[in-house]
Amino acid sequence: MEIIIRDINDMSRGAAEVLAAIGDRRIVALRGKMGAGKTTIVAEMMRQLKMDDEASSPTFAIANEYHSSETGQTVYHFDFYRLESSTEAYDIGIEDYWDSGNLCLMEWTENIEDILPEDTLFINIVEQPDGSRRIII
């Protein structure tokens, strides 16, 4: 499946399509170069899921946890950019997050490729020359 997001004003529609494509999947790897828009699309998805707090990059925290008092849903957002090995992901208890049944949105999974669950859904975000984003699911 492919989704084109023309510009920042098109982000709401694009994020809604990504959420629909995710469906019941719980483990999602967002891939793309630095600045491709991974965190931006996560932030819009969290807004649409009615999370209480605005999403931000978990680069330094490694993991952010979002809750919705309206829906009772919890979402985990990871950024593995700073990890040097899969062992560090185990150290933060990644398997407990994956086994929680909550949506886990992960950036920079290239750094933990060898331990990703088989049912991981991969979403690739590619910046186009015109500034639009091509999302390949």
Task: Describe the protein in words.
The protein is of the alpha/beta class and 137 residues long. The protein is 26% helix and 26% strand. The chain contains four helices and seven strands; from the N terminus they run βαβαββααβββ. It has a seven-stranded mixed beta sheet, with helices on one face. It is globular, with a radius of gyration of 14 Å. The N and C termini lie close together (5 Å).
Secondary structure blueprint with pairings:
Blueprint: E1 2-5, H1 11-22, E2 27-31, H2 38-48, E3 63-67, E4 74-79, H3 86-91, H4 94-99, E5 103-107, E6 121-127, E7 133-136
Parallel strand pairs: 2-5, 2-6, 4-5
Antiparallel strand pairs: 1-7, 3-4, 6-7
Helix pairs in contact: 1-2
Feature tags:
137 residues, alpha/beta, 7-stranded mixed β-sheet, 7 strands, 26% helix, globular
Question: What's the gist of this structure?
Answer:
By secondary structure, the chain is an alpha/beta fold.
The number of helical runs is 4
Output the radius of gyration: 14 Å
Order of helices and strands: EHEHEEHHEEE
Helix content: 25-40%
Average pLDDT reading: 95
Gap between N and C termini: 5 Å
Structural class: alpha/beta
Major sheet details = 7 strands, mixed
Strand content: 25-35%
Uncertain spans: none
